[in-house]
Write a structure and sequence with these properties.
Elements: E1 7-13, H1 26-33, E2 37-43, E3 56-57, E4 67-68, H2 70-80, E5 86-95, H3 98-105, E6 109-114, H4 123-127, E7 130-134, H5 144-155, H6 164-167, E8 188-189, E9 192-193, H7 203-221, H8 223-228, H9 231-234, H10 240-244
Parallel strand pairs: 1-2, 1-6, 5-6, 5-7
Antiparallel strand pairs: 3-4, 8-9
Helix pairs in contact: 3-5
The structure holds S-adenosyl-L-homocysteine.
């Protein structure tokens, strides 16, 4: 039986044994054992109709590789479809964002289509309400790793999974910025100290420093994020690294 917060993940894949895989460990694994989420991996091959259990065929128009058949994928999808959003992993999809992760985590779960070979017959995306998502501008051999990434990001946000830490409004991307850098003991390591402000006990100064670092690091490391961030025009950071550099 599932609890009130169960986030139901159904993964359509040619490699169901890849699930829960790494999500059976650590935070996600504990949450799975506690039924805070569920994991159901469905083999697309079970929906093939010929005796060879064929799921793919050669690309129309020619070219390398194989394409996942729309009829087989649709049959697999239709067998599990309900009120959950249906996602497909593809490098042609919209880049996955923390905002999308957060909205998915607040819903009933998700159905994830994992591609293989050259990907899906495009007609599946016209025929069914599927949101295409990419986990980044590089090419994987299959959608399974993408599904694991997406699920990991969602699961840590589920109620009771990470406790106070997951409310983390400071975390990278939650504010449209990267998070500020962290330090811990020992106070001196290989001659390097922790920024003085973090040892000051002055909470106002600490939070001002963290804000400045988040802004400065975002501007330097991720000008694309900084460009989109509201603070970019009104509050240009300057000199954060110079001020905190340790001799
Ligand atoms: N021929 C395709 C790549 C296919 S890779 C192209 O050039 O666009 C095989 C499968 O891996 C895809 O169908 C998709 O499910 C998955 N995949 C590859 N890269 C991905 C990415 N960046 N994000 C999400 N899924 C990806």
């Amino acid at each position: 039986m599932t609890g009130p917060y169960t986030f139901a993940a159904t993964i359509l894949t040619l490699y169901p044994d890849m699930f829960p895989g790494p999500l059976g460990q650590s935070i996600a694994g504990r949450a799975l054992a506690e039924a805070k989420w569920s994991c159901n991996a469905v083999n697309i091959r079970d929906f093939a109709t010929d005796k060879h259990r064929t799921v793919d065929d050669t690309p129309a128009g020619g070219g390398a590789g194989m394409v996942l058949r729309a009829d087989v994928v649709a049959a697999a999808l239709d067998s599990v479809a309900d009120d959950r959003p249906i996602l497909a992993m593809t490098p042609r999809g919209a880049p996955l964002t923390q905002a999308r992760v957060r909205s998915l985590a607040g819903g009933p779960g998700t159905i994830i289509l994992c591609g293989r070979f050259e990907g899906f017959d495009e007609r599946i995306f016209d025929a069914r309400p599927i949101e295409q998502l990419s986990i980044g501008d590089y090419v994987l051999s299959g959608g399974e790793m993408g599904a694991l990434v997406l699920l990991d990001a969602c699961i840590r946000l589920l109620p009771g999974v990470m406790g106070a830490a997951s409310s983390g409004v400071d975390e990278s991307f939650e504010t449209g910025l990267l998070e500020y850098p962290h330090y811990t003991r020992p106070p001196v390591w290989e001659g390097r100290t922790i920024p003085e402000v973090l040892r000051s006990g002055d909470h106002a100064r600490i939070s001002a420093w963290r804000k400045l670092m988040a802004e400065t690091d975002t501007r330097l490391r991720r000008p694309d994020l900084w460009e989109r961030h509201d603070g970019a025009r009104v509050n240009p950071p300057s000199g954060a690294h110079e001020q905190t550099k340790e001799e």
